[in-house]
Amino acid sequence: RGARAKRITIPAGWGTRLHDQADFDASMGELGGCEGYHAESLRGRVCSLQLKLRKASAHFRRAAEIHRQAPRLADPIQVGLTAAYVREHALVVGAKLPRQVPAIMLECGQKLRAIESLHRSLDALECLHGGIAEDAKLTFTTLLEEHGDAGPERRALWNLGLGVASLQLDERKAAERCLDNAGLHVCDPDCRTLGRAQISAWLAHVHQFAGADRSSREWWCFLEATQCPEATMVAMKRRAALLADRSLQLGRCVLI
Three-state SS string across the chain, please? Predict the structure, then answer.
């Protein structure tokens, strides 16, 4: 008695606030009264962004267990997003997952076009890790051609991925053009705070890997000027450092 009742529904506008404010602690706080599949998957997503990897894995395991017990309670968008979050997390921790599209997504066709493009992006990122640069290049090129109306964060990511694929193929001029395009999208006023912070850190890493130290420093300065909480900036820098270590380990520039 007197304890606050748990709720299943995610607070209205939660995702928008996460992307606009990039305040991980506030986002986790808003989920404090929520339970269920979607809430656990979102907690996993935020923890993964913070590089709280064990906590993230625990939340994803809880989400999977809830889904196994009551699969019909999760809608296709939640299932598709969670599958993408788990794949992103696997890239961060260096795990290998089989390419699996949840069956419920296959029943929805164009309703999940944005989710489908997210999974194709992850396919390409996995190709970069595997050194299959030609496949990554084709996928990122196709995404840019097919989704001309995509927001600046997605177009920045796809151009950045295309640039990294070009670097792996030793196509330096093409890589420079793609990185320039990615930078233009990051500077778009409509680019939200979380995407701006994350992709500017990636750009700093990629330019440094390519030997463009001046451009790398400029993107670090851009990140420092981004209006986001200090804890978020620290997390983005840690992710970029992990990215640099992974690229050095693999002997090729990659993204996570």
Answer: CCCCCCECCCCCCHHHHHHHHCCHHHHHHHHHHECCHHHHHHHHHHHHHCCCHHHHHHHHHHHHHHHHHCHHHCCHHHHHHHHHHHHHHHHHHCCCCCCCCCHHHHCCHHHHHHHHHHHHHHHHHHHHHHCCHHHHHHHHHHHHHHCCCCCHHHHHHHHHHHHHHHHHCCCHHHHHHHHHHHHHHHCCCCCCHHHHHHHHHHHHHHHHHCCCHHHHHHHHHHHHHCCCCHHHHHHHHHHHHHHHHHHHHHCCCCCC
> What's the pTM?
0.88
For the stretch 20-63, pLDDT in tens is 999 999 999 999 989 988 999 999 999 999 999 999 999 999 99
